[in-house]
């Protein structure tokens, strides 16, 4: 097959909804079907050309079970012979969907793949699919919550409560500025849903708090330790949402008259300490840079998922990027973290950031529950 490039042709996301917010009365399948149809409509691509659909979703039970990727693809009107599968790599699920789609294209197995993600945390609470860990695991590792892991990271790297809250305020301020300036307009697909018996059009992210301040956040109680540092204010929001990325071989995109917008340069995944759990982005970033031959200074935009402020701050302390390049439009603390959808949401935002800034390289990393991380480097195509 020779060397094949996997390129992003389109990327789109729904506005992120708050827990018990605008999407409360809307099933997850509808959100996913809407974004699958939306990413195709934006390019005008014949749905019959799609070789596969890969969807990230973490809590695969009830409405999100039964291979939601296949259910939603049929709801979206895709031909019955277009296959679809649902994968779970925790918070990195739909980023891994992007990476897996790229792998299938580079290998020559596919030419056109939709990588997407969905999570409705209101209707399917995080952990509602959880069962007690086997004793064998408990004998090998101390099993703690992600929140406790975030507390331990804050302790290990020496972050104060005020530093965590200050980072959280930064996220809200940047997201609010981007929203007010219309920076999210191109990447968001408005969606009409029913809420409390009325039809409403959702056009903006629901979780951004423009008036957030360190003083306000300081009043919040800690969640995981009585004398801890992690609060609802300096952690990612529980959210609902969906996003999709259309990936093709460069040859197929050009044959269809579609402009490649970014090339997927490198993909990787790593395991990390399952107790400290959320530190994987640090070694993974170093490995991605080594793989590509790039330096930290070569990356124009970094997207490090804000699962908790302590996670992002520890990553920044170790990697030493220019902070102005990190999550320039805010992150999950402000925008929300619909777990299975976040990877594709962040990739969508990263692509648009590079285009709007007229920059070249973007690097995305995400920590994953259980001690893993997913990573991707993209290069904008002029």
- Biggest β-sheet, characterized? 10 strands, mixed
Second-tier CATH architecture of the domain at 6-125 and 237-380: 3-Layer(aba) Sandwich
Q: Please indicate the percent range of residues in DSSP E strands (runs of 2 or more).
A: 15-25%
Number of helices: 12
Care to give the gist of this entry?
The protein has 382 residues and is an alpha+beta fold. The protein is built from 12 helices and 12 strands.
Walk me through this protein's architecture:
The chain is of the alpha+beta class and 382 residues long. The chain has a domain at 6-125 and 237-380: Peroxisomal Thiolase, Chain A, domain 1 (3-Layer(aba) Sandwich). The protein has 12 helices and 12 strands. Strands 1, 2, 3, 4, 5, 8, 9, 10, 11 and 12 form a 10-stranded mixed beta sheet that branches. It has a two-stranded antiparallel ribbon with strand order 6-7. Helix 2 links the parallel strand 3 and strand 4. The model has no long low-confidence stretch (mean pLDDT 97).
Keyphrases for this structure?
12 strands; 382 residues; globular; two-stranded antiparallel ribbon; 10-stranded mixed sheet; alpha+beta; Peroxisomal Thiolase, Chain A, domain 1
């Amino acid at each position: 097959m020779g060397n094949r490039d996997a390129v992003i042709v389109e990327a789109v996301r729904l506005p992120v909804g708050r827990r018990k917010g605008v999407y409360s009365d809307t099933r997850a399948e509808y959100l996913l079907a809407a974004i699958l149809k939306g990413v195709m409509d934006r390019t005008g691509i014949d749905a019959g050309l799609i070789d596969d659909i890969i969807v990230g979703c973490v809590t695969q039970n009830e409405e999100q079970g039964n291979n939601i990727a296949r259910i939603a693809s049929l709801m979206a009107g895709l031909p019955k012979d277009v296959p679809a599968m649902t994968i779970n790599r925790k918070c990195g699920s739909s980023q891994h969907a992007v990476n897996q789609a790229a792998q299938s294209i580079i290998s020559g197995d596919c030419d056109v793949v939709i990588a997407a993600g969905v999570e409705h945390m209101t209707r399917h609470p995080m952990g509602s699919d959880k069962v007690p860990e086997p004793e064998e695991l408990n004998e090998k590792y101390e099993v703690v919550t992600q929140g406790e892991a975030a507390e331990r990271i804050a302790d290990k790297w020496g972050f104060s409560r005020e530093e965590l809250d200050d980072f959280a305020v930064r996220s809200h301020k940047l997201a609010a500025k981007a929203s007010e300036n219309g920076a999210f307009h191109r990447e968001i697909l408005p969606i009409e849903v029913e809420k409390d018996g009325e039809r409403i059009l959702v056009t903006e992210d629901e979780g951004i708090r423009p008036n957030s301040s360190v003083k306000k956040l300081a009043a919040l109680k800690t969640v995981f330790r009585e004398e801890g540092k992690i609060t609802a204010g300096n952690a990612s929001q529980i959210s609902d949402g969906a996003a999709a990325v259309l990936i093709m071989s460069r040859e197929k995109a050009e044959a269809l008259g579609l402009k490649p917008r970014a090339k997927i340069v490198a993909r990787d995944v790593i395991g990390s300490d399952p107790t400290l759990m959320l530190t994987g982005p640090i070694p993974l970033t170093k490995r991605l840079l080594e793989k590509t031959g790039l330096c930290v200074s070569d990356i124009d935009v970094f997207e490090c998922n804000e699962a908790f402020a302590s996670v992002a701050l520890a990553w920044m302390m170790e990697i030493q990027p220019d902070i102005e390049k990190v999550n320039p439009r805010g992150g999950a603390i402000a925008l929300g973290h619909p777990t299975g959808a976040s990877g594709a949401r962040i990739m969508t935002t990263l692509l648009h950031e590079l285009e709007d800034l007229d920059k070249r390289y973007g690097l995305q990393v995400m920590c994953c529950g259980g001690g893993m991380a997913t990573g991707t480097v993209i290069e904008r195509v002029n």
